[in-house]
Write a structure and sequence with these properties.
Elements lengths: L2 E8 L5 E8 L8 E6 L4 E8 L1
Antiparallel strand pairs: 1-2, 1-4, 3-4
Length: 50
């Protein structure tokens, strides 16, 4: 199975808000997406953690 579960962390407050899956064979770089952070109360950039 090539899809793997990853956790997304807010770049501003460093809270781990979201988890998603990604295909490691097609996307080798770290995932980055804008998501709503409940702790910050606004849309911020969330990056993939280990």
């Amino acid at each position: 199975m090539s899809s793997q579960k990853v956790t997304l962390v807010c770049t501003e407050c460093l809270s781990r808000n979201y988890s998603t899956t990604k295909n490691k064979l097609n996307h080798t770089e770290r995932l980055e997406m804008k998501k709503f952070c409940k702790r910050c109360g606004k849309h911020t950039l969330h990056k993939e953690t280990k």
